[in-house]
Every structure is written in C-alpha cells, then in structure tokens.
Amino acid sequence: MGILLSEHKSFLIRRGIPEESVADLQGELHLDDESFQLFDTLESKPFNHRSFSFSVVKGENHCEIKADYFVGIDWLGKTGRTIYVEPKMNVGLSEYFRNCLNSEENSTESPEEFTSQEKAATREVNYLTILLDIMSLPETSRYSKDVVQVDWKAPPITIDQKDDRLTPFLIVQFLQHLKTIVRKGLKKSYYKAQENLNSKVKGKVLVGQHIKKNVFKNRLTSTFCEFQVFGEDHLENRFLKKVLEFVASYIGNNSSLFPSESDVSAIKDILNYCRPAFEHIRSDADEYQLKNIKKNPFFNEYGEAIRIGQLILKRFSYNITKTTQKKIETPPFWIDMPGLFELYFYYQLIKANPKDKQFIHYQFSTYGNHLDILISKPGCEMVIDTKYKLKYTKSHIHKDIRQVSGYSRLKKVINELKSKNDAWDENQIMDCLIIYPHLDSENVHSSTLLSDFSLENIKRQFEKTENQIAAYHKVFKLGIGLPVIS
Predict the structure, then answer these.
(1) β-strand 369-375 against 360-366: which pairing, if any?
(2) Closest CA to 244 of 187, 190, 189, 313
(3) E strands of 118-277, at which residues?
(4) pLDDT tens-digit map of 392-404
(5) Beta-carbon contacts of residue 461 (< 8 Å; ≥ 6 apart)
(6) Nearest one of 160, 90, 12, 73 to 437, comparing CA atoms
(7) What does the pLDDT look like over 421-451, one tens digit per residue?
(8) Which superkingdom is the protein from (predicted)?
(9) What is the pTM for the complete model shown?
C-alpha cells in the first residue's frame, strides 16, 4: 500500500487496539502490533545536509510521517510501503504567511487560521511549466541538475504511467539542453567509418571482413576498409539521436500525461526544432563507449545532455516499447520544489534585466552562508531570500527575516557592493526582500503580486505600505504567481 500526501501534509500510523479491526482511514492508518513494528526502524530521509525529503516522528503507539519541501516517490524503509508526495499547496497559506509577516513575533494576536473550505483548498503547482522556463536560459539551466535526486540503487516502484512525474521532468531537461546544442550547431569530431571501397584503399584494410565480403565473392576490385571521418555522425551525436527517438515515442504515446496543452505544444515545438539537425545521424550508439569521451569546454551542453539522456534510457531499461506501457517501474526520486522556485525567480530576474546580469548574484556564498540572491546594482542594492514553503508559526518566519538581515551585514557582501559602487556607504542599511509564492492571484490586491521583475520596478514596490514588513526597518515582502494546473 502507498501513502499519498501533498506538500507539507502529515500521515499518522497508529498501533491498533486488539479488538479493533485493521482499517485504512483518511490521513491515518491503524495497524496490528506485528505490522506496526515494521516502522520501528523507519528514519527521516535526508535530501541534503539541510533538508529532508520526508520526516518521521515516532511515539510509543504512533508514527507520524511528514511530507516537507519535496515532491516524489520512495520506499518507507523496510516496511514494504511507499510514500508518494504530490506538488500541491494550500491556497490559504500565502495569505496566512503575509499576515504573519505583518505581525510582531511577540504579539498576543494570532493571525487568522485558514480553516474554511475555500482557504483549505489546494492547487497543484505546474512544475513542468516552471522547468521549461528555467531550462530556456543558460544562466538558470546550469543549476537544474541539483533540483532532482534519483536513487537507481533502490528497487523500482510500480506505478501507473499517468502518475509518472520523473520522466516528464527528465524529458523537459533533456530537450532544452538539446535545443541549446542544435542552436549552437552540432559538434563535429573524428569517428571511425567502415566501407567497401571500389578500386581504392583508405585507412586500414579489415582483412577478415575483406575476405568474407570480397575474396569469397570474387569482387577483386573492392577492398573493405576502416578509416577516420571528420563530421557530425560521431558517437555523442548518435547517442543523443537515440535518446531523441525514445523521447519522441514517449511524447507521442503519453502527451496526455503533461499538465497542460501549452506544455505539450512547447515540448513538441522543441522536438520539431531538434529533429532536422539529427536527420542524417545514425542512432546506433553503445552507452559504455561514452565513458572514454573527452569533454570539450566549447561544448559544455553535451555533458549534461548525455547525463540526462543516460537517465532516460535507464528509466526505460533501454527498451523503447516501455514508453507505451500503462504500468511502469520508476526508481525512487525527489524533486526539490524550493530549489525550483528559487531558480524560477532567478530566471525572471535574468529575463527582465538582460543588461544587468553582472549585478545579479545567485547563491552568493560567504563564510559558510549562501544568500539566495544578491543585487549589487547601484541604486538597487538588496538581499533577496525566496520562501517557497510558507511556515506555519510566526517564530519561524521572524527567524528567517533576522537571517536575511544578518546576510546584509556580512563584510563580503558589503565589499561586493563597494566594488560595484564606490559611493556606497558601508554604514548604510541595505534593503532586504522576502519573495514568496501566491497561488490565488484572483483574490489578492495586484500591488502585492510582482509581475514586472525589472530591478527598478522591484525597488519602486518598496514605497507601498502593503509591501513593507512593519515590525522591521527596510525589510519588504513581495509575492509572485506560480503556474498551476486548473
């Protein structure tokens, strides 16, 4: 049995009363003693050194499994059960988060809870649309490999094809990398070719093949040779062509699995853009030969495209007929939704400020700290922290605000600002900005949602009272809309 959760939801497993029958309840599972003991060894699953894919809280007669910031599917230890987390967020959380920001941490007033059905409704975040945008720019696509983890060593999990979230994610990554390669031009390289030549010799004669194809058949003027050719039909391009065929088969048979028609249309456009470039390239490539390929720094896109292509082929066990099956096996995987949201905002900044890229610093690191984004443009200096997950308690939210404020006091940050602006006063208090997602843009004042991501417009938003965090000086908040599945 699989446990189905949405982001930041919990599932409670209880030790059943002997007289009580074993029953599956909504958000709760009652088990007998023998079955419950299987959860004794269950531990939280780390995603990295800072976060967990899911958390486990144990009691004497209960075990609570909490979904956190990640979307995916995995085994629950040795229990034989699985956990499946959907990319759904509570619509009322953004309103609650905004209310918490506007109240002081030690105030006795508690922000209004979202208990009504309207506020408790959930919407599914269209992460593929977000990924399509992120992968369209080289500045953001280079970080995309860090937002997904796949455990190929664990036993695969059988799911319905319609519930597959890993394959569409990998396909979007691969196609966007391939589009960059095609736009830049396919790499040419030396590769070996074999041909039965007439009245000439080229390269070296393959004696065994020559005897079999020519001597035994009395073709005395022909010679079977192996020689090197400089062109596009080399191993790397053949491998990409092979993966492209798998991708085309999957899209053709499973287009309904993509969240929206616009996503399918965009993916097919990329597919049609890439296909002509590989028309005269063969697809007979052995993956093990790729290990000996030397990377060319001028064609960095090849390395990541080949890496993702290997994951796609491994995903289908190198059998193209599996792209049409209704039941499939998927390896356990997790997608980092906060990381995806962070990259989505970074993408919006780069897209809206093409002439100011040198002033936008993503993951600016100093003394073990990593700032989400640092803006060093003169007149627009600020530290930006993205908060995809909307915390439930005021204390956590205000702790995050103090953390962002602390980043603005780091000497390395101040020195970076001074290097871009000689007139910057190191005693000046820098602007700090909290960026959070909003899924209910129809019922919120337009001034609290950011649509123009130019640095000048972001700076102008700070003048509006509704974007200021009253309890702090020069700390601001702005919500941005996320694509959702209707």
Answers:
(1) antiparallel
(2) 313
(3) 122-125, 148-150, 157-160, 189-198, 204-205, 222-231
(4) 555 667 787 888 8
(5) 447, 450, 467, 476, 478
(6) 90
(7) 887 887 888 899 988 887 655 544 444 567 8
(8) Bacteria
(9) 0.80
